[in-house]
Amino acid sequence: MSQQENLPFDEEYYQPPYKAVYRESIENAEKFWRKMSEELEWFYPYEKVLDETNAPFYRWFSGGRINISYNALDRNLKSRGNKIAIYWENEKGENIGLTYSQLYNEVNRFAKVLQDLGIKKGDRAVIYLPLMPELPISMLALARLGAIHSIVFSGFSVQALIDRINDAKAKMVITTTHTMRRNKRVELKGIVDQAVEQTPSVENVLVIKRNEEPVMKKKDVLYQDLAKRTGYKKVEVEETSSTDPLFILYTSGTTGKPKGIFHLHGGYGIWTYLTTKWVFDLRDNDVFFNTADIGWITGHSYIVYGPLQAGATVLMYEGVPDYPNPDRWWELVEKYNVTVFYTSPTAIRSLMKYGEDWIKNHDLSTLRILGSVGEPINPEAWRWYYKNIGNSSLPIVDTWWQTETGGIMISATPGLGNYMLKPSANGLPLPGVDADVFTEEGIPTNPREKGYIVIKRPWPGMLAGVWNDPDRYIKTYWSKFQGVYYPGDYAVKDEDGFFFILGRADEVLKIAGHRIGTREIEDILISHPAVAESAVIGIPDPVRGETAVAAVVLKQGYTPSSQLRKELEDYVKKTLGSIVIFGGIYFVSKLPKTRSGKIMRRLVRSVISGQTLGDVSTLEDETSVDELKKVIEEFS
Ligand code: WTA
């Protein structure tokens, strides 16, 4: 790649403090974390920086008392009360700005309503809201009470909602009537109505009214009614312990059942606060625009908890980037003087196709740092972003991390003076992150040799476990290699210690940056009356990164047709969520299987992507592969 020559960042920019801070964090970890933790406010000091007695259930800052909502709001009231915490705008250009003190008031009022409805410390509430101000408000209100939120991305549908509510045994669901996408109404409450018929733990559905009258069901209560009665009163903050759960966020793994990743007030709080400063270098006059949805970890950590604890101003946009026009984001950057901009490779690729004229009419000169997250960024997208949005002069922080890691793990760190970029590289590990690349045998790879990325010691932002399933936590993350955390990504490391993350090493897809398991899609497909069996795999897509492809065996009495194909696609979207985008559904009479009856997804993938088949010695019936090949040929 040739963009190296154009990069203004060189070894001379790669200055301390990054190197010194990193070394300190590894060689003198205990002292380092003690110092770092002082930047936040504690109700009561902790005894131990890291409690390893029940490893791998590591607990950070145990014995201490801290509340993340307090650190985001109360702590900032004193010095930043009149500063904007959140700007919100929608597709139509309607907007509001909430100062820290206004946000504090809203959060307290919301917390009072929750309290009056019986929500208390340790209770779970599922939030199913679009990117409206009440989303961060309700999160911060629940956290203030020590209750646990579990946000379900509004692109998920009924079944996904049911599974998550039931696994978390949520007492409450918080929702609204709808959101708008491309000026079309997207129903939300109707989906909750269907879901709560199958979720016995839910006592109340708290409905936030927008510009239409909600149709109320028997468990529904209207937020505005209660809030009016409550008024603005201060609610005492719960002095949660560092190791009390803050939220559960369900994410996809290799089985059909999503994992409830949960994070704690202390470690997650410190990690999101510090990484926000290290990576995005947020200072008091910055405006941070993160285009992610809060329903994913990127929004949890870098719209809400990191930036607000850091006292920054964030911009939330409820809408799509290309409506009403493909310059919607650039319009917002100009209007709000955005200084730090964070988005996904998929979004960049989807905007590239509209050309540069949409950018030229906007003054983007306030920008100083660009970020990328969610999937590996391809060189074309990187170059386009760098040249057209970054004016060939801004650093792009390509941040690698996961729901499980709580916050960014590998990236450039402008906040620590490390602007060093390399084409396609994510960068160097953040302080405290002891990363390496291992071979299948668990030994470090040679430079530039492909292997699995691993994290060799605990870090404060790490997941606390898998909700209701401690064994799965150990099995998924701590068993592939003894004593090290296994993220499930392929990577290489070069001779300078730069990491390049190459993609998932398991059955997890990234469709437009959204994480979804192939088994989850299979489970939904086979719940359709026409489907007997299915195998889902991912194939590369030029814009979305990946899409799902299914090989489907129909039940007797059903015949393949394009209509049925469409029906299956719609069914998956309606049941699981609109985030599932198919690159094809192929009907076959049988799937390739081993003699013991296991579906050989590897072979399905090889056939569909036109690769060589590899070892077929365990294949029971070779005609299954021939048939699949034929079906694909006919189709294309
Ligand atoms: C992938 C999103 C390459 C990776 C924050 C990881 C990335 C998964 C990057 C986690 C990046 C995320 N470069 N790959 N900058 N960022 N990934 O839990 O495969 O939705 O394991 O968290 O996204 O997805 P999740």
TrEMBL record:
Q: Which GO terms describe its molecular function?
A: 3-hydroxypropionyl-CoA synthetase activity; acetate-CoA ligase activity; AMP binding; ATP binding
Q: Which biological process, per GO, is one annotated for this protein?
A: carbon fixation by 3-hydroxypropionate cycle
List keywords of the entry alphabetically.
ATP-binding, Ligase, Nucleotide-binding
Q: Which residues form the Acetyl-coenzyme A synthetase N-terminal domain?
A: 18-72
- Domain (AMP-dependent synthetase/ligase) ranges: 74-459
Do you know which InterPro entries this protein is assigned to? Ac_CoA_lig (IPR011904), ACAS_N (IPR032387), AMP-bd_C (IPR025110), AMP-bd_C_sf (IPR045851), AMP-binding_CS (IPR020845), AMP-dep_synth/lig_dom (IPR000873), ANL_N_sf (IPR042099)
| Keyword Ligase among UniProt keywords | yes
What positions does the domain AMP-binding enzyme C-terminal occupy?
Answer: 520-598
Q: Give the catalysed reaction(s), semicolon-separated.
A: 3-hydroxypropanoate + ATP + CoA = 3-hydroxypropanoyl-CoA + AMP + diphosphate
- State the function annotated in the UniProt record: Plays a role in the autotrophic CO(2) fixation pathway. Activates 3-hydroxypropionate to its CoA ester. Can also activate propionate, and to a lesser extent acrylate, acetate and butyrate.
Q: Which family does it belong to?
A: Belongs to the ATP-dependent AMP-binding enzyme family.
Query: What's the protein name?
Result: Acetate--CoA ligase
Q: Which organism is it from?
A: Acidianus brierleyi
